[in-house]
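Subject: Phospholipid-transporting ATPase

B.,
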Amino acid sequence: MWRWVRQQLGFDPPHQSDTRTIYIANRFPQYGHYTPQKFIDNRIISSKLMIDTPTSPVTSGLPLFFVITVTAIKQGYEDWLRHISDNEVNGAPVYVVRSGGLVTTRSKNIRVGDIVRVAKNEIFPADLVLLSSDRLDGSCHVTTASLDGETNLKTHVAVPETAVLQTVANLDTLIAVVECQQPEADLYRFMGRMTITQQMEEIVRPLGPESLLLRGARLKNTKEIFGVAVYTGMETKMALNYKSKSQKRSAVEKSMNTFLIIYLIILISEAIISTILKYTWQAEEKWDEPWYNQKTEHQRNSSKILKFISDFLAFLVLYNFIIPISLYVTVELQKFLGSFFIGWDLDLYHEESDEKAQVNTSDLNEELGQVEYVFTDKTGTLTENEMQFRECSINGTKYQEINGRLVSEGPTPDSSEGNLSYLTSLSHVNNLSHLAAGSSFRTSPENGTELIKEHDLFFKAVSLCHTVQISSVQTDSIGDGPWQSSFAPAQLEYYASSPDEKALVEAAARFGIVFVGNSGEIMEVKTLGKLERYKLLHILEFDPDRRRMSVIVQAPSGEKLLFVKGAESSILPECIGGEIEKTKIHVDEFALKGLRTLCMAYRQFTSKEYEEINRRLFEARTALQQREEKLAGVFQFIEKDLILLGATAVEDKLQDKVRETIEALRMAGIKVWVLTGDKHETAVSVSLSCGHFHRTMNILELLNQKSDSECAEKLGQLARRIREDHVIQHGLVVDGTSLSLALREHEKLFMDVCRHCSAVMCCRMAPLQKAKVIRLIKISPEKPITLAIGDGANDVSMIQEAHVGIGIMGKEGRQAARNSDYAIARFKFLSKLLFVHGHFYYIRIATLVQYFFYKNVCFITPQFLYQFYCLFSQQTLYDSVYLTLYNICFTSLPILIYSLLEQHIDPHVLQNKPTLYRDISKNRQLSMKTFLYWTTLGFSHAFIFFFGSYFLIGKDTSLLGNGQMFGNWTFGTLVFTVMVITVTAKMALETHFWTWINHLVTWGSILFYFVFSLFYGGILWPFLSSQNMYFVFIQLLSSGSAWFAIILMVFTCLFLDIVKKVFDRQFHPTNIEKAQLTETNSSIKCLDSMCCFSEGETACASVGRMLERVIGRCSPSHVSRSWSASDPFYTNDRSILTLSTMDSSTC
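Prediction pasted inline below.
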C-alpha cells in the first residue's frame, strides 16, 4: 500500500509501464523557461493589499493572464498531437492466445507471459521468445533495420520441444516457465532458460539471442510465428535504448533569459534610485508635507522602514512594463504559426511517398539556423536501402550492366575491336548452351565456348557462395539464356544476410544463372534453363578478421569445389591463378566510383584433399577449448591456392542529391558525422560514394582497440599524425568498441583528434552510443548546436539527445519520425530546412526579441524621467488603458507579421549560397553587442520623446484656442503618440519583404491607435469610474504645434537610424547585405538591385531606388524570378514562403 501511494505521488516510479503514451500536460511554467516571478508579485502588490499605486490590478494581471492562456493552449495542442501519434502504436491490433483461441487486443495490453501471434511482414509488438513457426524446424527470419540499421536477414530458432506446437490448440496445452535476466538495453545479449513440463517430466532448454524476437523488428519470409512475451512496454530493449526525453531549449531562449535578467536589474535599479531620490527630495519640509497635501496622524507615526519598502514596491510596479511580458506570448505565437510554413512548403513534399514535412515541436524553429554539427544515420537516411549491381570484372575483362545485358569495355571473340560491345549474341549463346551446360570446369579458355564457360563459372560462384534465403512463392518461368533473360525480379523474392549478396544473386539471375532455392543440404541453380543440384558440404562463415566467406559444394559431376567471396585485400594474396593484375586495376577503378567491391575465386579439391579438410573442420568445430583459434587456422588452410574468377561492383543506392546536400552543409561550416551500426567496410564505402569522405582526404582509423592503454597510444599516434601531415582535410573512422574505450578515459584526447577532422565516421554503434557521442560534443567547451537525423528506432536516442532531432519517414517504420522534433521524407530536404527555413526563423525571432526590449525601453524610460518632474510621487505618465494596450494592441501586430513573413533575402539565393549560413551561426544576431545597440537606441529614442515634448510644448501656455494650457494627461498622451508612431516606423525600416499584410498591420496599427483614442477620449463611458482622458486626445490633435512636434520628433529618431544603416551598408556590409545588393545568379533579372522598376520613373524614383538599394528593401511586386534548370537542389521554387510573383519576364 505504501509503495502504491509513493507511486501515485511520483516518488517511487512503477517497476513496469505498458505504454509510452504522453498525455496533455499543461507545462506551466515550461521547464527551462525563465519567467520572472515578479509578475505574480506585481499583481498582488497592485491589488491594494499592501500599497496604493496609480495603476490598476488589471494593468499587470491582464497581460499575465493572456500570456499564460496562450502558452497553455499552444503546449496543450502539441501534446495532444503526440498523444494521437502514440495511440497509433499503442492501439495497434495484435492476436494473443487466450482460453484456447486467438483473441484480438491492443499492443499496449500485452502482458508478460502472453503468447502472441505475428504474421509475415508484421512488426513484433514486444520482446518475444520464439515458440514455433510455420516451419518444421521452428526457424524464422527477421529484419532489424529499425533497431540496429542493418537490413540483413537474421535467423531465429525455437527450442525443439515447442517448435512442433504450430497450432493454437497445441500451444494452449503448453506448460512451461521462462526464466531470463532483468531488462537491459544491449540488443545482442539475452540469457535465459525455459523449463518445459511434458508427461510429468521437466525439460530445461537454454535461451540465447537466437531465441529472442525484439520489439520493432519485422518478420520476413515466414508465414507466421508464435512467441511468448518476456519484456513489454518500456522494458523492451527498443524502449530501453530510448533516451529519456528532456526539455529542449533553443539558444535564442537562453539569450532571451539573459536579457531578461539584465532588464530585471535595470528595473530594480530604477526603483531603488527613484526611492532614494524621493526621500532625498522630501528631506526638505516644504516638499515632505506641502500645504495642499497634509499627512494624517497615522502617516506621521508609521515606520520609515516599512514606508521605504512600500515606496520601493510602488516604483517596481510603476516601472514593471520594462520587462516585456508580452514577448512570451508573441514568441509562442510566432513559433506555433511559423511552424505551418514548413508543412506547407511544397519543396519539402515527397510525391512518391505522399509525405510532407511535419513539425512535432515548434519551440526549436530558430535552432535550425544555428546548427554546427550534423549527426546522421547511414542506412535509410543517406541510402535507399537498395543495392544495385553495376559492373564486374571476369577473367580480366570489365563489364557493366546496361538494360539487363552485360556489356564489355574491351574486345571479345565476337568483336575484336571497339569499345562497349555486347559480350555475345543471344543466338550464339543458344548454339553453345548445350556445350556450356555439360562441360566440366576448366580454367584456360580456348574459344567462344570457353568464354561462355568462364562467365558461367563466375556467376555460378555468385549464385552458390552466399547465405541467401528465398521465399516460398516460386515460379518456373525462368529465363533460359545467359546475360539476357525474361526473368522478372518479382518472380523470386530473395532475403539475404547482406544486401550485397541479394544484389549479386539477383544480378546472376538476370544473366541466366538463377538460384531457385535450397532444401536441406541441396542448393538448386538453373543454368540456361537446366536445373542443377549442388550439395552444400560446408559454410565457412564471414568474420571481420578474414574479411571473406566460403562454401564447399559438390557439383552434379561429383567434383568438390570451394567458392570464395570477399574483399580484394583478403582474396588476391591467396590467388595463384587468374588475371590477378588486371582484376586489381579494375577493382581500384570500381572503388574510385564509390562502388562496393568483392572478389570471387574458387578451388577444386581432390578426394584426398577434401577428406583432410573435412576431418580438420570436424575437429575444430567440436573443440571445447580455443575453438575460434582452431577454426581460423583451418579456414586459412582451406582458403589458399585459389584461382581468381573476377570481381563484382555493387552500388548502395544513395538517396537523391545526398552528395550535393553534404557538400552544401560543409560549405555552410557544418561538420557532418555519420553514426551507423553497419560494418566498417560498408560504412566507409558509402561515405566515399556520398561525398562524406573524399578520395583526397587522409583517412585515420581507430579500430579494434582492446584496452585503454592501446586506445590511448593509438589516439596519440593519430594526434601526432595530424600535426605532422600537411593535409588540408582529415577523416576519422572509429568503431563502437574503440569509441567506448576512448570515451571512458580519453575524452579530451579523442575530442582533440575529432576537432581536426572535417568528417568523422562511427561504425558498429549501439543506439545509446550514438547518444553518448552527441552528448560529448554538446558538453565540449565550444558548446556547439547539434542536429541528429535518422529513420529507425535505433536513432531515437541520438534524435532526443541532440539540440534538434529530425526523423526520416522512410522504410524502417515511424519510430524516429514520432520521437523527432521535425520529420522529413528525404535527406536532401535538410538543405532547405536549414539554409532557408532555419535562416529565416532565426533572423525573424532575433529581430523580434531585440525589438521587444527596444520598444519597452522606449515605453517606460519616459515614465522614469517624468518622476523627476513630479517629486517622485509615483504619478503615472500614461493612462492605465494605454499601459495595458501598448503591447497587446498598438505595437503587437507589426512585429508578429514581420516574424512570420520576413524574407530579408530571396530563398533561392540562400539555398544556392550556403556560405550565408555562416553569418548567423553562433547566435550572432543576439550577441551582447547587438543587444546593447538596441537598448541604447531605445534609451536615446525615449529621451527624444520626453525632452522633445517637454521643450517644444511643455512650457507653452497658449497652445489651445480657449486659452487653456496642456496638462499632465495631454503631455503624457503626446509622448505616447510619438512613441507609437516611432516604434511602428522603426519596424517598417527593419522590414525588407513587403506584402499587403505588412502594409495593413503597419499603417493599420497607427490608424487604429488614432481611432481608438478618439473614441476612448471622445465619449463618456458609463462603466468607467473615472475618465481622465476625456476630450484630451481631441484637444491634442487640434493643436498645430502638437502636429509639428510629432513630425519633428519622429523624423529626428528615425533619421539617425537611417544614417547608421546607410553608413554600415556602404562601408561595412555583411555577406548577407552584399547578397542583397548583388546579382547573385541569372534567376534575378536586375542589374543594380534585387528590385525592378518600370521605365516611366519620376524624378524622385531614382532617389527612392538608391535608398532601397542601400537599405536592401525589395517589394514583391517588383521582383522577377526565372529559375534555370541548372540551378542546384530545386529547379523550381514552389515554397509557400515565396509570396511574391513568379513570372519569368525580365525587367
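The radius of gyration is 38 Å.

T.
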